[in-house]
Amino acid sequence: MNSKDRTIKAREIWLKCYEELGSASMAARKCGIPRSTLYRWIKRTKIEGNEALKGRSRRPITHAKQKVTDEITELIKSIRTQFNFGPQRISLHLLRVHNLEISAPTVWRVMKSNNLPNIKKYRKHGDVKRYNRPIPGDRVQIDDCTRLRVLRLYGNKKTESTIDFLGHILDTFEFPIHRIQTDWGTEFFNDLFQEELMDHFIKFRPIKPRSPH
After folding, report:
1. Superfamily of domain 131-213
2. pTM of the predicted protein model
């Protein structure tokens, strides 16, 4: 049962309750609806029969009187041609410059009826700026200048493994390492690893917490 059928069924129950109780106030209170609503459907069914329970279309019979004259239409077309504005900006332009309050949807209907094409938006593709550090070894995580990598697999996260891996980095890169960037793992914050960095004059830079870049 769709929503329309459920609505009709509910109206039938209201009227049946009214017939059984003989009181609009009691029926409305029992059905949980305002008395005015119940009176409306009682009146409609008396005039139109059960067909009234289907309800009436809420679509307006006639459209509201259009306030767009031929002069305003020509003004909208000229603004569109001269400034290449869209409906929203044309609406603002009419209000600010010509003191005419025309909504953007109305402007859009005028443009559509006059076959004015939509504005094509072209996204400017700027040159891709590649992030990198100016000097090799300035900050090593994946080296931000050369993109060189050293990969090694360990079965634990002990201090000894961290120091051993640092040694492989120093042996692999042919340039001095100025700074090491890591996350906040405890294997990087122990005294032995920090002393190893100091022995090689390497600065330590942990990333910000919860920033896994």
Report:
1. Ribonuclease H-like superfamily/Ribonuclease H (3.30.420.10)
2. 0.37
